[in-house]
């Protein structure tokens, strides 16, 4: 298992998405949470590639959720399993409509919080908690109406709360992710602080683009 994980991390670091998936999918019946969450991540990364067809994408997204769920069952105290379970539930929500998306929001928040609790140094989990807050702060009125009809206490958040998480992520690991810089800028804009927005958006613009996502940012 350790050898496979070492090889997988090397491929992940080299951006060899297809190779990584082919390596890990051979171990899909593994009992090891470390292997399983990596397989969930690899399935999701493969789904994100522009060369993946719409049909394949959907299949991979659901597959990723299964692997993440299994990783959690195998080890509840694995922070990465909580993080990827939350990410995969969020992805599946895109296929299941607004009602499921709002219902899932509670579960997603709970698992991100658990991941942060288990590993307060993981900047990505903290960033994703910020994204969660930002999405609910920005939720359009018609979705709020649906949420209020479906749930006694629908999920809500504020831009200030989102900002707190983005800053916490930056403190945990400065300059770790172009998107965190972008969202610091976007959140300051929402709070009408143009000076701070300019500072963070400039940092995002000057960030060295390693991945496709960095370029989009």
Distance between the termini: 35 Å
Characterize the main sheet. none
CATH hierarchy class name of the largest domain: Mainly Alpha
CATH architect. name of the largest domain: Alpha Horseshoe
Q: Looking at CATH, which topology of the largest domain would you report?
A: Serine Threonine Protein Phosphatase 5, Tetratricopeptide repeat
Relevant CATH superfamily of the largest domain: Tetratricopeptide repeat domain
CA-atom Rg in angstroms: 18 Å
Low-confidence stretches: none
Keyword list:
217 residues; Serine Threonine Protein Phosphatase 5, Tetratricopeptide repeat; 11 helices; single chain; mainly alpha
Q: Care to describe what's here?
A:
It is found in: Cytoplasm, Cytoskeleton. Belongs to the RMDN family. Interacts with microtubules. This is Regulator of microtubule dynamics protein 1. The chain is mostly helical and 217 residues long. It starts with a helix and ends with a helix. The protein has eleven helices and no strands.
Topology:
Blueprint: H1 2-13, H2 17-25, H3 33-48, H4 54-74, H5 79-118, H6 123-137, H7 141-150, H8 159-172, H9 178-190, H10 194-205, H11 212-216
Helix pairs in contact: 1-2, 1-3, 2-3, 3-4, 3-5, 4-5, 5-6, 6-8, 8-9, 9-10
